[in-house]
Amino acid sequence: MEIQGNIAVVTGGASGLGAATAAHFASLGCKVAIFDLDRERGEQHAKDIDGLFVSVDVSDEVSVSAGLDAVENWAGSSVRVLVNCAGIVIGSKTVGKHGAHPLADFEKVIRINLIGTFNCTRLTAARMSEAQPLNCGDRGVVVSTASVAAFDGQVGQAAYSASKAAVAGMTLPIARDLANNAIRVCTIAPGIFMTPMMAGMPESVKQTLGDSVPYPKRMGDPREFAKTAAHIVDNQYLNGETIRIDGAIRLAPR
Ligand SMILES: NC(=O)c1ccc[n+]([C@@H]2O[C@H](COP(=O)([O-])OP(=O)(O)OC[C@H]3O[C@@H](n4cnc5c(N)ncnc54)[C@H](O)[C@@H]3O)[C@@H](O)[C@H]2O)c1
User: Fold this and answer.
1) How far apart are CA 88 and CA 192, in angstroms?
2) Structural domain harbouring 173
3) Were 14 and a residue from 42, 107, 159, 210 both cysteine, which residue would form a disulfide, CB within 3.0 to 4.6 Å?
4) What pLDDT digit, counting tens, does each position of 152-201 carry?
5) First-to-last CA distance in the chain?
6) Is 204 part of any domain?
7) To which H or E segment does residue 252 belong?
8) From the alpha carbon of 148, which atom of ligand 1 is closest?
């Protein structure tokens, strides 16, 4: 599907990988709506890319539906691309210094990373299904974000890895569900990327993280994630797959 001239929603688009994706898609001539809870950064970024910011909680049904209504009113046509980037990390061991892993933390990570991704996917796909297919045949494309922690989760990542493994795991069945609707579904599993989350770490830690990547010996640039998302939209034969983008890193236990 051509990115130019179409409408995309990027969740988590106020920061990091989502912000880079929103900017890249806008630079390719796409109208981009950012769904995020961070109003200040989201509004500023939307302004910078001539897009729309909507305050949306991805895990909330009413909030996402209202967000999609706002995008349709703004753009005057249907959303064709959804990039799910909203996510959180809470690190905690199954049994740690203070006892068992807090269940509320586990539930929160699953709620936002997994249920939020599915919630946005199902509601956006329902609207894509109502639209006429484009000339290429596609009605829409969904790109979700897992993590290499889906496959080699580290100490303290039980909740995060569970949420991301589930995002990877549901990619094929959702692609199969939506095949008759001409909607493609892929997932990107990033390694270690230089986002605000990482930028705050001490220089020595960043260096060590970069050195742990076989090649190239550095953290990923969010623009490299954005280019992968754009390629998935562009390349019609990509469907039902989870793609690692990680410089060949395999995470150590800790
Ligand atoms: N940075 C990395 O190295 C890395 C590696 C692997 C996977 N990921 C995944 O990529 C995605 C983006 O990560 P990032 O590093 O850009 O993080 P980030 O913290 O920079 O951005 C995440 C954005 O999601 C938003 N968000 C959080 N909860 C939300 C909710 N309920 N509703 C709407 N928006 C919400 C935040 O406000 C924030 O703007 C996440 O899913 C993360 O798990 C990141």
Assistant:
1) 15
2) 7-193+222-244
3) 42
4) 999 999 999 999 999 999 999 999 999 999 999 999 999 999 998 777 77
5) 40
6) no
7) none
8) 6
